[in-house]
Specification:
The protein is an alpha/beta fold and about 210 residues long. Helix content is about 25%, strand content about 20%. The chain is built from five helices and eight strands; from the N terminus they run E-E-E-H-E-E-H-H-E-H-E-E-H. The strands form two sheets. A six-stranded mixed beta sheet has the order 5-4-3-6-7-8. It has a two-stranded antiparallel sheet with strand order 1-2. The protein starts with a strand and ends with a helix. Keywords: Glycoprotein, Repeat, Secreted, Signal. This is VWFA domain-containing protein.
Length: about 210
């Protein structure tokens, strides 16, 4: 569990990071997911890093079997407010998702991670959004790519996601480390990418979602 030092609460999260670029991908294609990429497009991320995020998504898609009865992928981006780029199941092949990822826009703005998580909880895994909430064999996973400095309250929506069976993995650079002065993201912080790591390598997700 990760303790939220601001509020004295803890939420169980999976925490494992292998910084090497070669990790076995076995396992991802044996389990199917409703997988949402939640992308921070705030001003603090920057266009250069956001381009790496788009590339990273394209690499990760290759580790899954994509299809209506297999893994479905959706993308939500947020800054001042969340916006769905495409819903779960909108694209039925790896290539279609890769092409769609290239078109994700960078907006800039504030980092309202809490609002984005509330949006995910209420909409992104619903039947209307292409989710399979009544299928217990499907794992609900959010990969949150962010600079880590949320400007709103995160603990309550993160707790709500956990209770709903949504597994959240936050991925970011060293700035993700929570401090006593800025620990609002610690309830869902799972993976830290060091400044020297290659964000384009799909080396961590298989460890996270098995």
């Amino acid at each position: 569990a990760v303790e939220d030092r601001c509020h004295g609460a803890s939420i169980p999260v999976e925490m494992e990071f292998t910084p090497t670029s070669r990790v076995s991908l076995a396992g991802c294609k044996n389990v199917h997911y409703d997988l949402i990429f939640l992308l921070d497009t705030s001003s603090s991320v920057g266009k250069e890093d956001f381009e790496k995020v788009r590339q990273w998504i394209a690499h990760l898609v290759d580790t899954f079997e994509i299809g209506p009865d297999k893994t479905r992928v959706g993308v939500v981006q947020y800054s001042d407010q969340p916006t769905t780029e495409f819903d779960l199941g909108s694209y039925g092949t790896q290539q279609e998702i890769k092409e769609a990822a290239k078109s994700i826009k960078y907006y800039g703005g504030n980092t309202n991670t809490g609002d984005a998580l509330r949006y995910i909880n209420s909409y992104s895994f619903s039947v209307q959004a292409g989710g399979r909430p009544n299928d217990n064999a499907i794992k609900k996973v959010v990969i949150l790519l962010t600079d880590g400095r949320s400007q709103d309250y995160v603990l309550s929506p993160a707790s709500g996601a956990h209770k709903a069976g949504i597994r959240i993995f936050a991925v970011g650079r060293a700035v993700l480390q929570a401090t006593s002065a800025d620990c609002r993201l610690s309830a869902i912080w799972a993976v830290q990418i060091s400044p020297g790591s290659r964000l384009t390598q799909p080396s961590i997700l298989p460890r996270l979602v098995k």
